Amino acid sequence: MHSLSQTVVFLLCVLASGECRKNRHRLPRWTGALDTQRHGTSLAKKPPDVTKSRKMRTEHLIKVDDHDFTMRPAFGGPAIPVGVDVQVESLDSISEVDMDFTMTLYLRHYWKDERLSFTGSTNKSMTFDGRLVKKIWVPDVFFVHSKRSFIHDTTTDNIMLRVFPDGHVLYSLRVTVTAACNMDFSRFPLDSQTCSLELESYAYTDEDLMLYWKSGDESLSTDDRISLSQFLIQKFHTTSRLAFYSSTGWYNRLYINFTLRRHIFFFLLQTYFPATLMVMLSWVSFWIDRRAVPARVSLGITTVLTMSTIITGVNASMPRVSYIKAVDIYLWVSFVFVFLSVLEYAAVNYLSTVQDRRERKMRERAQSQSLPCTCGISQTRTMAMLDGSYSEADTNSLAGYTEEPMVPEEEDMREVPEKAEHMVVHLSVSSESTATKKKKSLRGLNIIQNTHAIDKYSRMIFPGSYIFFNLIYWSVYC
């Protein structure tokens, strides 16, 4: 009866939870065993939740409230060593116009702060997010010559703080920084650039804080998938030195150095190859007839304007430096070759006009100096001599030729032959001296006045000179 009454009480407790809690100590032991079978297995495996214990709060465990963390560790003593290592995630861009680069990296600091040491049941480190960083001391490392930089905050601040029981601290953050890079474009686009990302403490001199690479050259690691469109990354390496400021003193400075070599294939397609084609196109005018003025002039002007466009396009994507770049030498020499081809046709056309004018004046002068003669043979030979159908030997033989004129009056028989003979001799001597002078002048100016010879020699001189220039250029800059 006693056990039956206890069972009834238990059933009533199930229906009324309040009564069950009040009379739970009166229930039979088998009900407790039932609860143990139902929930005992999961509770035995689940570790105790230390966050529910007020004594295990983070502030109390690492004693944040007991110390003044505005001061560096071991203040008044020797400089605190802070090791640094960096993992480069990406090299985003290189700007020639702004002379800077953008890099995303994981920056990690290692130091020891005994004020953060703690004792626990397990000798394990504790990891915190960026909220605790504001309550403790961390190194004030900044990027020298930085233009823009920020800590990533998606989805939360990308900051990690790990504290070990002995007080060692690991502080890591993900940063994107845009820093200046002094570039030398004297060999552009056949150049190599060396840039540096510099880290330094802002407030603490080398007497308070000593920055160093934690593992030497192995402190810098990079992702194998890092690549750039215009550059080949040759190597990364680390260095360190002291930096002096006249107003504050000496500081430890760490350098992340990397060397970039520019890909030339893009500029071969976009700059060098079009410029070479324009120079070769300007040579086509040497094979066009000199009388085809519109064809040769339009071809020369087109090549000159195209070269000007190429030069303008290259300089638009470059900073306005005060020295000559390698690409400037190639483009301007090519421009000079194109411009000289235009001047060559101008010289050909001018000399052709001068030669035609001289020939026309000589014919007019010869016609004005020819006198009428009643003798048939003498007049025929004299006109033939002036027209140029007689040779110089025939002209000289004409000096001794006399023929009796047909004169009706006897009183003029003596005067007319003398006049006729004098006329023939005068014309032959005059023609002889003119031909001799013309022959001597043509010997000295044969190449200049012969327009066909100018084009002929230009066909060999222009290509040969340009090939010689290319051999020197590529041997110097490659």
Fold and architecture overview:
With 478 residues, the chain is of the alpha+beta class. The chain has helices at residues 2-15, 17-22, 29-45, 58-61, 130-133, 265-282, 293-316, 326-369, 376-387, 392-397, 415-444, 446-449, 451-477, and strands spanning 80-95, 100-112, 126-128, 141-144, 146-151, 159-163, 168-180, 192-201, 209-213, 220-222, 231-245, 249-262. The protein is rod-shaped. 18% of the residues are buried. The model is unreliable at 17-28, 30-44 and 374-432 (pLDDT under 50).
Q: Quick summary of this structure?
A:
This protein is of the alpha+beta class and 478 residues long. Helices cover 44% and strands 22% of the residues.
Shape designation: rod-shaped
Helical residue percent band: 40-55%
How many DSSP-defined strands?
12
Tell me what portion of residues adopts beta-strand conformation.
15-25%
Largest sheet: 8 strands, mixed
Mean pLDDT across the residues is: 79
Element order, helices and strands?
HHHHEEEHEEEEEEEEEHHHHHHHH
Kindly provide the radius of gyration, computed on alpha-carbon positions and rounded to a whole number of angstroms. 51 Å
Tally of contiguous helical segments: 13
How far is the N terminus from the C terminus? 110 Å
Which residues form runs of ≥5 with pLDDT under 50?
17-28, 30-44, 374-432
- Class inferred from helices and paired strands: alpha+beta
Features:
13 helices, 478 residues, 44% helix, eight-stranded mixed sheet, alpha+beta
Write the layout of secondary structure elements.
Layout: H1 2-15, H2 17-22, H3 29-45, H4 58-61, E1 80-95, E2 100-112, E3 126-128, H5 130-133, E4 141-144, E5 146-151, E6 159-163, E7 168-180, E8 192-201, E9 209-213, E10 220-222, E11 231-245, E12 249-262, H6 265-282, H7 293-316, H8 326-369, H9 376-387, H10 392-397, H11 415-444, H12 446-449, H13 451-477
Parallel strand pairs: 1-9, 1-10
Antiparallel strand pairs: 1-2, 2-7, 3-6, 4-8, 5-7, 6-7, 8-12, 11-12
